[in-house]
TrEMBL record:
Residues 39-107 form the Cyclic nucleotide-binding domain. The keyword Metal-binding does not apply. It comes from Thermus thermophilus (strain ATCC BAA-163 / DSM 7039 / HB27). This is Cyclic nucleotide binding protein/2 cbs domains. Keywords: CBS domain. It comes from the Bacteria. SUPFAM superfamilies: cAMP-binding domain-like, CBS-domain pair.
Length: 585
C-alpha cells in the first residue's frame, strides 16, 4: 500500500502501523451496497476507505460522506451497540476490513485511543439526540484483562522500559510500602525530560503512594476518580491484593460516550462546543440511570480539568508565575453539585501581595476561556478577575465576615465557604483552619443558622404543598435550604466536607443532627436534585432555557409524595435548628 499513512497510523511507530495494515482484508463494495445498518447487528470489523466514498445515512437521508483515509465502524465496536448510522457505498469503493481483535490491539497505543475517541464525539454530534447506553454501573474490575506486572524499586528505568515493551503495557507497579506505580508518562516527564540516566532507580521516579480502588467499584466512580486525580492508570484491588490495572484506553474502549473522551477534547483546548457536549453527556448518563449527584461529580471533574488546562496555557503564554497561587472555585461547583453548566464562581489566592499585571492577565485568560467553553461570567462578579487577594488578605476578609456577619458579609461567606482549590500550588489549609476556629466562637454559627431558615419549604395549611401559579421553585424551596442546613451541620461538627451528602453524614456522626433526620434530608436532596435535572434536560430538548421551577401537577403521584416528604424533612430540620439556636421562626 504505497500511500501516506492515514491518522492515527501516521503517529504510530512505522513497524506497528505496517503490522496493523497487514491484518486488513481487501474488499470491494459496489454502488449502494450497505456495509453497516443502523439499529442492526453490532459491527464486527473496523473499515478503512482506500478508494471511493461511503455515506452515513439516517432514515434514508445522507448526513456525511467519508473518503479515502477514513475509518468507520469503530463507534459500534467501542460501545458494543448497534450502529447509529447506515453506511452505504457511493460508487465502487475499495476498503480494508480489520477484525475486532486487530482494532483492540490498535487501541493499546494512546494516539490511536485518542483519535478514535475524538471520532466518536464527532459522529455523535451528527446525531445529538442519539444516546448510547453507557453501562457505567458495572464493576470496573470486569475490564481487567491480565494480572498486574511488578518491578523492584531498585531496578533501573532502562530495565523498566524494556519490561513494559516486552509485556506490551504502559505501566508497572513498584513493590514496596506504600505501593508505587511507574507509567510511560513518568518515563517521558521524569526521566527523559529531566535528562536522567538510564541507570536511574525506578523508586526515584515512581509515584508513591499510588491511588487504588476496589475491583467492584462501579465504572462511573472509577471514571470520576480518574478525572478528579488526573491519572491515566488505576490499580484495582480485592482485599489486600492488587488484581490488575485499568487505563483510560480500557475505559474508552468500553464506552464510546465516556467522560474521558470529552476530557481528551479539553486537553486539546477544543472549547467551542464544550457546553453542548457536557449537556449531551449529562443527558446520556441521566438516561442510563446514573444518579444525578454522581453526574455532578463527573461534570466537576471535567470542569476542573478545563480550568487546569486553561491555567497551563496561560502560564505557557505569560511565563512562570512570580509567586505560588491557588485558583479556587466555590458555590455549587465547589460542592461538585453542578450538573449542567451555569455561571462561573472562582477566585485567586496569591502567596504575597503584588504582581498585579501577571495575575490580572492570568485571571482574564482563564475567565475568557471558560466563557468560550460555554460557561458564562457570574452576574454578581464572583470571578478571579475581581476576587484576587493574597492568602493573608483572604484570611483577614474571612475573619471579618465571621466576626461581624452583616447581611452582605453573611452572603459572601456562604458563597465562599464552599471553596475548593482546583489549580496552582498554594495550599489553602490556612483558610480552612480559620473557618473551623472562628466557627467555634458561636456568633457566626448563630447567624449562619439564621440564614439557613430564610428559605422555607412551600408548605401551607394542613401540611399541603403551596405552589406559585402552579410552580414550585426547587432551588429556592428545596435544594438551597438543605445546602444551608448541611453547611451549618458541617461547621458544628468541625468537618471540612464540601459535598452536601457528606456534610449531612458528618453532622449526624458528630451529633449536630439526628441520624434519622440526616438520612431523610440526604434522600430528599438527591430526589430534588434529580427532579430539577430531569426538568432541565427536558427544557433543553424542547429548546427552552433550563430553570429551577417545575409544574407541581405535572409530577407523577409518586414524585408528589416524595416531594411532600422532602419538604416535611426540611421543615422539621429547620424547626430543630431554630430551637437549638433559640431563633424565632
Amino acid at each position: 500500500m504505497e500511500r501516506p499513512l492515514p491518522p492515527p497510523l501516521d503517529a504510530l511507530p512505522e513497524e506497528a502501523a505496517r503490522a496493523f495494515l497487514a491484518r486488513g482484508e481487501k474488499v470491494v463494495a459496489e454502488e449502494g451496497e450497505v456495509l453497516l445498518e443502523a439499529q442492526g447487528p453490532p459491527a464486527t470489523h473496523l473499515y478503512l476507505v482506500l478508494e471511493g466514498e461511503v455515506a452515513l445515512e439516517e432514515e434514508g437521508e445522507e448526513v456525511e460522506r467519508l473518503g479515502p483515509g477514513s475509518f468507520f465502524g469503530y463507534p459500534s465496536l467501542l460501545s458494543g451497540a448497534s450502529p447509529v448510522f447506515t453506511v452505504r457505498a457511493r460508487g465502487k469503493t475499495r476498503l480494508l476490513r480489520f477484525p475486532k481483535e486487530a482494532f483492540e490491539a490498535l487501541l493499546a497505543y494512546p494516539e490511536a485511543a485518542r483519535f478514535f475517541g475524538r471520532g466518536v464525539a464527532e459522529r455523535l454530534r451528527l446525531r445529538p439526540e442519539k444516546v448510547l447506553e453507557p453501562g457505567l454501573a458495572r464493576p470496573v474490575g470486569e475490564l481487567v484483562q491480565r494480572p498486574p506486572v511488578f518491578v523492584d524499586p531498585t531496578a533501573s528505568v532502562e530495565e523498566a522500559a524494556r519490561r513494559m515493551r516486552e509485556e506490551g503495557i504502559s505501566s508497572l507497579l513498584v513493590r514496596g510500602e506504600p505501593l508505587g506505580i511507574l507509567t510511560d508518562r513518568d518515563l517521558r516527564n521524569r526521566v527523559l525530560a529531566e535528562g536522567l540516566p538510564p541507570s536511574t532507580p525506578v523508586g526515584q521516579v515512581a509515584t508513591r503512594p499510588t491511588f487504588t480502588l476496589p475491583a467492584d467499584t462501579p465504572l462511573l466512580e472509577a471514571v470520576a476518580a480518574m478525572l478528579e486525580r488526573r491519572i491515566h492508570h488505576l490499580p484495582l484491588t480485592r482485599g489486600e491484593e492488587v488484581v490488575g490495572v485499568v487505563t483510560h484506553t480500557d475505559l474508552l474502549a468500553h464506552q464510546a460516550q465516556s467522560p474521558l473522551a470529552l476530557l481528551r477534547r479539553v486537553e486539546r483546548l477544543e472549547l467551542a462546543r464544550y457546553g453542548e457536549e457536557v449537556a449531551r453527556l449529562v443527558a446520556g448518563l441521566f438516561q442510563a440511570g446514573v444518579p444525578a449527584l454522581e453526574i455532578g461529580r463527573v461534570v466537576a471533574g471535567l470542569n476542573d480539568a478545563l480550568i487546569r488546562r486553561l491555567l497551563q496555557e496561560a502560564e505557557r503564554t505569560l511565563g512562570p508565575p512570580p509567586v505560588p497561587y491557588a485558583f479556587f472555585v466555590f458555590g455549587s461547583e465547589g460542592r461538585k453539585e453542578q450538573a449542567l453548566l451555569t455561571d462561573q464562581d472562582n477566585a485567586l489566592a496569591l502567596a504575597e501581595e503584588g504582581h498585579e499585571a501577571y495575575f490580572q492577565a492570568l485571571a482574564e485568560r482563564v475567565v475568557e476561556g471558560l466563557v468560550a467553553a460555554g460557561i458564562p461570567p457570574c452576574p454578581g462578579g464572583y470571578m478571579a478577575t475581581r476576587w484576587r487577594l493574597s492568602l493573608a488578605r483572604w484570611q483577614e476578609v474571612f475573619a471579618r465576615w465571621m466576626e461581624a456577619p452583616e447581611p452582605q458579609a453573611l452572603l459572601d461567606a456562604q458563597i465562599f465557604f464552599d471553596l475548593r482549590p482546583v489549580g496552582g500550588s498554594l495550599s489553602l489549609a490556612a483558610l480552612e483552619r480559620l473557618i473551623q476556629e472562628k466557627a467555634k466562637a458561636g456568633v457566626f454559627l448563630y447567624h449562619l443558622a439564621q440564614a439557613a431558615l430564610a428559605f422555607r419549604p412551600p408548605l401551607g395549611l394542613f401540611g399541603r404543598v403551596r405552589t406559585e401559579e402552579g410552580f414550585i421553585d426547587l432551588k429556592r424551596h428545596a435544594l438551597a435550604p438543605i445546602v444551608s442546613l448541611a453547611r451549618v451541620y458541617a461547621l458544628m461538627a468541625g468537618s471540612p466536607a464540601r459535598r452536601t451528602p457528606e456534610r449531612l453524614k458528618q453532622g449526624a456522626e458528630k451529633g449536630a443532627v439526628s441520624l434519622e433526620l440526616a438520612e431523610r434530608l440526604e434522600e430528599a436532596y438527591a430526589f430534588f436534585f434529580h427532579l430539577r435535572l430531569k426538568a432541565q434536560l427536558q427544557a433543553l430538548k424542547e429548546g427552552r432555557p433550563p430553570g429551577n421551577r417545575v409544574v407541581y401537577k405535572a409530577l407523577s403521584p409518586l414524585e408528589r409524595r416524595r416531594a411532600l416528604e422532602g419538604f416535611r424533612a426540611i421543615l422539621e430540620a429547620q424547626e430543630a435548628l431554630a430551637l437549638r439556636f433559640q431563633i424565632r421562626l
